[in-house]
Amino acid sequence: MDLPEEIDAWVDALRGTFDVLEVSKPIPNRGDSRMVRVYVELRLRGPSCSPKPTASTATAAAPTEPDRLAAQLRRVNNVVGWARARITSLHNKRDKTPEPQKARRRECDVRAEEIQRLVDELDKALGGGERQ
Fold this sequence. Notes:
It contains 4 helices and 4 strands; from the N terminus they run αββββααα. It has helices at about 5-15, 55-60, 65-95, 100-130, and strands spanning about 20-25, 25-30, 35, 40-45. A two-stranded antiparallel sheet has the order 1-4. Strand 2 and strand 3 (about 35) form a beta hairpin.
């Protein structure tokens, strides 16, 4: 089997699953290699056209409430899993922080808590003054 026949055989095999849009000419490989490169542009075949469902089949195909809730729960679990992985990586990164930087962060956290406490007290004082 020579090269053009081999390329045609592979393209025919691809046509069983894909829509072959374009096939390039064989491009020789670099160096002393006897290999060639052939670029194939293809597209997945769309789903086969099926008849539109009737009213009786549409109600049977509609997901039930438990199925819908199970799918929603799977999506939520995917998000929760991602969030847990992200939190774990952040904790690992935090644990590798040098001690002086940790001390500075603790100091900033204490100051932020103090500021928040003062803001809460001010809100209470202003809120109480407006009511009177």
